Amino acid sequence: MTVYRLYKNRAFEPEAIAVMTDAYAEVCRTLGLSEHQGDDTQAVAKKVIEYAQRGVSDQKRLRDRVLAALNQSSSVNAL
Fold this sequence. Notes:
- By secondary structure, the protein is mainly α.
- It is built from 4 helices and no strands.
- It starts with a helix and ends in a 6-residue tail after the last helix.
């Protein structure tokens, strides 16, 4: 799973990791991306981590913020 590789060496509680992983998977599904697709999923993973570091700890809020950010920046080709 792409997102796990990016934050495996960072300090997140197990509950936060579960929320981030689920939010990542939901964003990928929403955008029609395979969780192992490459650059597009890297952009998703980085946004998930960014918002989690900013304190977004609710899965749905995290998913929604990541989707909004990616839509605004057009970081993902599928948008």
